[in-house]
Every structure is written in structure tokens, then in C-alpha cells.
Design goal:
Layout (H helix, E strand, L loop, with lengths): L14 H6 L10 E8 L5 E3 L7 E4 H14 L3 E6 L17 H12 L4 E6 L13 E2 L2 E2 L1 H17 L4 E4 L6 H11 L8 E6 L6 H7 L18 H14 L3 E5 L5 H10 L4 E5 L1 H12 L5 H15 L3 E4 L2 H10 L5
Parallel strand pairs: 1-3, 1-4, 1-12, 4-5, 5-8, 9-10, 10-11, 11-12
Antiparallel strand pairs: 2-3, 6-7
Helix pairs in contact: 2-3, 4-5, 5-7, 7-8, 9-10
Length: 329
């Protein structure tokens, strides 16, 4: 006699039934695609450590946004790499800067595209650090002065959301103040609230030409071993006015994503970073894994952990796969 009254396998017996009971779904509307923008015209330079990703000149970045929107991606995160860099990163707030010029052009070509701008200084400074350096150390409060200038410039040129990535103490508060003071009350801030000092940023630093010339960023980015500190950083950003908080990297910090989701009543973003992307691409190119399946499992795990938004270099690949499947990935 068989006394099995509980048979969970019943709900796995067909693709349709599995789809009906699926608890976690990733859709293109959950994703933000990062883009790296450089000076020049007709520039499309592949990033060697990130196959399929490119440095784009402004004209081609606009065309790429049109393609992304047609593919189902509704939001981009913009990074700029200027020709001229200095100690303070002053190119980040100039009226003729790359970000300042590209936003209106994207808006003209794709009015519905939601544009998030990265706010930091590592791409703009000659030393590669995320702010003003004094005697070999990052000067937190001097950096806030530049952050205020960059924030206002991005807002004035049409950014839909600004994402400060430098892990500078008081950054979100300074940004919220200058935005509100200048009438940008409705402009949201997405804080890189728990950004770990990680080796997984290596390919990004090639793409954005921002590796530190001296030392590293461990004095301002978080120690990835610290769970409670991550929650404190998130809480501080929320208290200062962050509308969305982020955990970065994503795959190795799913536990932090979950805790942030469980403890705070704001949307949670996660950044599926360059090193995570590069590993999947390299293994896929060598035939060691099924790249598409790993991409799907990775993004699903991040969403399941609690991320409402995923910033990922896989965004376009996912959107095209999603469309091909009729939304049944």
C-alpha cells in the first residue's frame, strides 16, 4: 500500500504547469542596461574583457538606445569616459560634457527611454579614485562639493534618475539638498548603498579606464565580509533621501539583497557586475557551460533574492531571448 499523500512532483509534470506555479519571474522591465560613452564619432570599440560590450561615441550610443528600446529595454545607466581628466574630475559637471550632451540626444531619439546617470569621479580623475585626494587619501567632504556640482548638472540636462556610486559619506544627503533647492523635487536617487570593494569590477575598470593609479578603494568601498555594516549603509542612505538602494555585486551577495529587502520598505536594485558577466561569457565561449541557461539562472537568482531592479550587461541578450520565447523563459 502506498501512503504518499504529498507529491511535489505533480506540479512539475509539464511546462505549462511549471509556468503556472513559477514564483519568480524576470522580465525586461526589471532590467537596466549599462552603456559606456566616449569622445569621438562613429566609435564602437569592443571591451576585450566583456565580449559583446562596447565603448560607444555619442552618436552611436543614441542609435544603441533606439535598438535597446525596440528590444524591450526601457532604461539605461550611462557612464562617460572623457578625453581630459584632472585631479578633481571637473569634466563631470561641464555643460559640454559627454553625459550632458548625450542625454538630450537620447531623449530626442527615444523619448520614453528612462535615463539613469552614474554619479562618480573615478572615470573623470587623473588618479582614478572616486573623489578628491589629499596626501594619498580620499577627502570625503571636499568630494561632496564636486558631487553637488555634478548632481545639479545631470539634473539640468535631463537625467531621469541619478545613481551615486562612490560610497562617499553624506553623498545622498548632499544630492537631495541641492536637487530640492533647485526645484528637482521629483528627481529620484538610486544609491549604490552597499557597494563592496570587489575584484569583480576588473573588466569595468578596463571599460571605463578608471583603475586607481595608486592604492585601492578599500577605504571607502565596503568590506564584503560585513553584513551588519551593509544594512547600516543602506539605512543611512534611506534616511538621507535615497528612493532606491542598491547592492553590488549581486551574485555573491544574495544574502545581503534578501536582508535589505526584508528590512527596508524601498525598492532594491542589484548590480550584476562586469566580472560576473565576463566569467559567464568566457565559460560559454569555451563550451564549458550553456551561456543562455546560466544567464537565466543568474538573473532569476538575483530576482528571487529580492531585487526589484537588476542592472546587468545581459539586459539586451535577455530581452531578445524573452521576446523569442513569447515571455515564457
Amino acid at each position: 500500500m502506498n501512503y504518499l499523500s504529498h507529491r511535489p512532483r505533480r506540479l512539475r509534470s509539464s511546462p505549462i504547469l511549471r509556468s503556472l506555479v513559477r514564483e519568480t519571474r524576470v522580465t525586461p522591465s526589471n532590467l537596466i542596461m549599462p552603456l559606456f560613452i566616449v569622445p569621438g564619432d562613429k566609435v564602437k570599440l569592443e571591451i576585450k574583457s566583456m565580449p559583446g560590450q562596447y565603448n560607444w561615441s555619442i552618436d552611436l550610443a543614441v542609435e544603441k538606445c533606439v535598438e535597446l528600446y525596440k528590444a524591450g529595454i526601457r532604461s539605461v545607466l550611462l557612464f562617460a569616459i572623457p578625453d581630459l581628466k584632472d585631479d578633481s574630475g571637473s569634466a563631470s559637471w561641464q555643460k559640454d560634457g559627454i553625459i550632458q550632451r548625450v542625454i538630450p540626444l537620447i531623449k530626442k531619439a527615444v523619448p520614453e527611454m528612462f535615463i539613469v546617470t552614474d554619479l562618480c569621479f573615478c572615470e573623470y580623475t587623473s588618479h582614478g579614485h572616486c573623489g578628491v585626494m589629499r596626501d594619498g587619501k580620499l577627502d570625503n567632504d571636499a568630494t561632496l562639493e564636486g558631487i553637488v556640482k555634478q548632481t545639479l548638472s545631470h539634473a539640468q540636462h535631463g537625467a531621469d534618475m541619478i545613481a551615486p556610486s562612490g560610497m562617499i559619506d553624506g553623498c545622498v544627503g548632499a544630492m537631495r539638498h541641492v536637487l530640492d533647492e533647485n526645484g528637482f523635487h521629483e528627481l529620484p536617487i538610486m544609491g549604490y548603498s552597499a557597494k563592496m570593494a570587489s575584484a569583480f569590477y576588473g573588466p569595468f575598470r578596463e571599460a571605463s579606464q578608471c583603475a586607481p593609479q595608486v592604492g585601492d578603494r578599500k577605504s571607502y568601498q565596503m568590506d564584503g565580509a560585513n553584513r551588519r555594516e551593509a544594512l547600516r549603509e543602506v539605512q543611512l542612505d534611506i534616511e538621507q533621501g535615497a528612493d532606491i538602494v542598491m547592492v553590488k555585486p549581486a551574485s555573491l551577495f544574495l544574502d545581503i539583497i534578501r536582508e535589505v529587502k526584508d528590512n527596508f520598505l524601498v525598492p532594491v536594485a542589484a548590480y550584476n557586475v562586469s566580472g560576473e558577466y565576463a566569467m559567464v561569457k568566457a565559460a560559454g565561449a569555451n563550451g564549458w557551460i550553456d551561456e543562455r541557461k546560466i544567464m537565466l539562472e543568474t538573473l532569476t537568482s538575483i530576482k528571487r533574492a529580492g531585487a526589484d531592479i537588476i542592472i546587468t550587461y545581459f539586459a539586451e541578450d535577455f530581452a531578445r531571448a524573452y521576446a523569442e520565447s513569447g515571455g515564457e523563459l
